[in-house]
């Protein structure tokens, strides 16, 4: 198959490039220097020569707090560009795999969100991703795979794991929020799900995260424990649990955003979500190597 991946420098794109390394598909990664996905007039000219059978959108505006004061730029990438790409796919008969977020939910549910639970995004980023979802499902209801995920990290790029490792080696004490609950997700597993969806053209809305549940505080403690065990940190520092009210951010975050993965477990037969602590351990091994 001809597969085009939009985005080439992000966490998901990095893991996708490794997943596709030894595949028989013709895979092209396009970054912002190669294509302006916010411009509907030039999308076709850039993409048509590649004749994609499948287009994976690994690009997004992901600066959640900055989005609050930069909503137009955020919308252009997370909503307008998704619409543009879906229109191109519809015209060319291509299948589209797109990734969305737990931030489309309000975070009040208290039990894992089902794929058809009502969405109610709280901030500019969540709203823009919800608009993107809506456009995709309207334009390509039967020829798209929408995968919502959460708390993504990888050995490549900036993320919570790498920030914690840095702060834990620089500071004498750290405070981390303990009243936001979700599931850390290694981008490698997410990339495997995207590859499975692409190869099988698995249409529908799915949730993909690693297994298990954690607060950011639990996640930080695990990073410290495993970081020491693997020699990435030389000593422990006190890590204190604090409520979100003591760490105000411009964007409101869902307090509870665990995603139910049952339909994904059934649909993506070539990959299975693993527990977040095992995934974290494997990613830290990779970081060390
Ligand atoms: N990270 C998370 O915790 C998280 C949580 C839930 C859902 N998600 C979703 O998961 C997906 C993958 O996220 P990620 O963690 O891989 O994000 P990421 O590391 O921030 O990567 C996003 C990529 O999009 C690219 N991009 C932005 N605007 C672009 C444009 N106009 N044209 C082409 N590329 C553009 C960026 O390129 P530059 O590097 O050049 O800016 C970057 O490579 C996204 O849909 C995101 O919304 C992420």
List keywords for this structure.
binds NADP nicotinamide-adenine-dinucleotide phosphate, Rossmann fold, alpha/beta, 289 residues, six-stranded parallel beta sheet, two-stranded parallel ribbon, globular
Report on this structure.
- Helix content is 39%, strand content 16%.
- The radius of gyration is 19 Å and the shape is globular.
- The strands form four sheets. It has a six-stranded parallel sheet, with helices on both faces.
- It starts with a strand and ends with a helix.
- The protein has a domain at 2-157 and 185-211 and 258-273: NAD(P)-binding Rossmann-like Domain (Rossmann fold).
- 46% of the residues are buried.
- By secondary structure, it is an alpha/beta fold.
- The protein is built from nine helices and twelve strands.
- The mean pLDDT is 96.
- It has helices at 11-19, 40-47, 71-92, 124-139, 160-170, 187-200, 216-229, 262-267, 276-288, and strands at residues 2-6, 26-30, 54-57, 95-101, 144-149, 152-153, 174-177, 181-182, 185-186, 204-207, 214-215, 239-242.
- NADP nicotinamide-adenine-dinucleotide phosphate is lined by residues 6-7, 9-13, 31-32, 37-38, 58-62, 77, 99, 101, 129, 149-152, 157.
Q: What's the short version?
A:
The protein is of the alpha/beta class.
């Amino acid at each position: 198959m001809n597969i085009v991946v939009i985005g080439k420098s992000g966490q998901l794109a990095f893991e996708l490039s490794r997943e596709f390394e030894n595949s028989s598909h013709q895979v092209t990664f396009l970054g912002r220097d190669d294509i302006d996905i916010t411009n509907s007039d030039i999308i076709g000219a850039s993409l048509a020569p590649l004749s994609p059978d499948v287009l994976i959108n690994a690009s997004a505006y992901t600066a959640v707090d900055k989005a609050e004061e930069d909503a137009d730029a955020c919308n252009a990438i997370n909503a307008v560009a998704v619409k543009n790409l879906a229109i191109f796919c519809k015209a060319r008969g291509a299948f589209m795999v797109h990734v969305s977020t737990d931030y489309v939910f309000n975070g009040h549910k208290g039990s894992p969100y089902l794929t058809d639970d009502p969405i109610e995004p709280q901030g500019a980023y969540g709203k823009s991703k919800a608009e993107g979802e809506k456009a995709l499902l309207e334009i390509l209801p039967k020829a798209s795979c929408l995968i919502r995920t959460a708390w993504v990290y990888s050995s490549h790029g900036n993320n919570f794991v790498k920030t914690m490792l840095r702060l834990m080696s620089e500071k004498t004490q750290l405070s981390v929020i303990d009243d936001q609950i979700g599931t850390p997700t290694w981008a490698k597993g997410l990339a495997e799900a995207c590859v499975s969806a692409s190869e099988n053209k698995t249409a529908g809305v799915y949730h993909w995260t690693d297994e298990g549940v954690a607060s950011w505080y639990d996640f930080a403690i695990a990073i410290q424990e495993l970081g020491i065990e693997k020699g990435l940190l030389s000593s422990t520092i006190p890590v204190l649990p604090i409520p979100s009210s003591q760490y105000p951010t411009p964007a409101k975050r869902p307090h509870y955003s665990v995603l139910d993965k049952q339909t994904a477990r059934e649909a993506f037969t070539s990959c299975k979500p693993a527990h977040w602590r095992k995934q974290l351990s494997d990613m830290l091994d990779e970081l060390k190597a």
